[in-house]
Hints:
mainly beta, four-stranded antiparallel β-sheet, 40 strands, globular
Amino acid sequence: MIRGGKSLVSSPPAFSNDAANLLVCTANSVSVFSTATALQVAELEGHTALVTSVIVVPGNRVLSNCWTTSLDGTIKYWDFSVPELIKSIDVHFPVYSMVIPSYHAQKPENTENPTDVYAYISVQDTKNKQNKPNKDLTGQILKCNLTKSRLVSGVILSETKKPENITISSNGKYFGIREKRKLRIWEVPSKDLKNISHRKLKLLHSKTLSCFAFHPTERIVAAGDITGRIMIWRGFGDRTFAGDSGKLMKDEEEKPGVRGDGDADSGTTWHWHSAEVKFLFFSSDGAYLYSAGKEGVLVVWQLDTGKKKFLPRIGTPLLSFVNSPDPSLASISCADNRIHLLKMPSMEILQSISGIKLPSPVPEAFRGSCMDFAFDHSAGLVAVRTENYCIQLYSLFDDREISEVQVCERNHQPSDDVTMILNLVALSLDGSVMCTVETRLAEEGIGGFVTLKFWERGSQNNDFSLSTVIYEPHSDAGVSAVAFHPTRGMAVSASYGGDFKVSYHIFFLLFFENAFL
Length: 517
């Protein structure tokens, strides 16, 4: 049995300290890719359930250690250069997210008198529901001593209805979670020891929050919601975290844009996105805020003025952004199961790591008329009908994308209005010829038509080039099926009008013979 095609974008990836490798959570393992070639060079295998996070231990360029978490209830420590499993910690709960504040601290750890390394983990506890006052609260934020390989007893920072993703500031001073319409933020003690209490605050919003990010140097937090709005809270924690030396508590009238008893000086709302904001991140100097979502556009906001500019469309919804130790390199994860390696700050795509893509959705009326896959048995390739009117050629043997064919030129449209459908894809037995069928839907009863296309594979590579286009191959009827002859240059197309046509593929010309059923 051949297995492959795992998701590359279920969790954000992580760069190695030399930025030469990208560690990607792929189902029950972590795949290590070269950033120079975008090819897989190693794999960390040992988890028995979905890997939910990977964190590289900071240090010099030679250090190649990382932590991983999984729904199998373990946290594992690896040397990914070998690769080799060094240590495994069983926390007995599925782990959905983890942050390690000391890895973000500005000052390095004291190597002469090293302290224990603590992590904060988001887990799901369904075992002791009967003993809980509120049985619906299964999500918990716990503290784990990674050095001593055990949970810190008696420390439960939060209980929520479900496990929430933890977001940490770039300096490691604050971390938090979103819980429906509010943010819960904790301050990490300067010396993160077992018995030091953790102070927290909350910020309220009118809509369900989808993501948030901390400013790198100031007490500013930005949060996006499911409607596309972005909320900027400035001066958060002045009342909670500053203590006696902090500012006096302000009246609500003196805190414009801050709802309820939220601990912030002011709040500002920005709105450009038409749907849910998928991720936010601040530039390293804090002058700009980047946002992205369903539109496939990266929006760059000037923090002081709210002015914005846009980076070109990538063609699919964007999910996460990760900086690397090399300031000229970053990665962006996309909803089409692809990770782009970017040259910064121009955002030029240097390399792409592509997993197998899901078939594009189609309207209910056309679901029975669409063929999602076709196979090239000789080369072990699968052709997948994907979004944005593309055909992806994916190697089942190598478990990677070989090429992609743009069947028709169409920009990514975030709206739900469908104007064209890529119905069918078929491959000849030797994989040298591909056939596609696309349908342009009529608008107000005008302009609909069907197109049949034949594509030739190049002799030196796996790229296909268009050789023949046939408009309305079966008059006004749609194409229901296409099949190639196993040994001859011949293909048959059938229609919903009750006829089929045989095409002879000779010197890039097609001759049709009609036969009516």
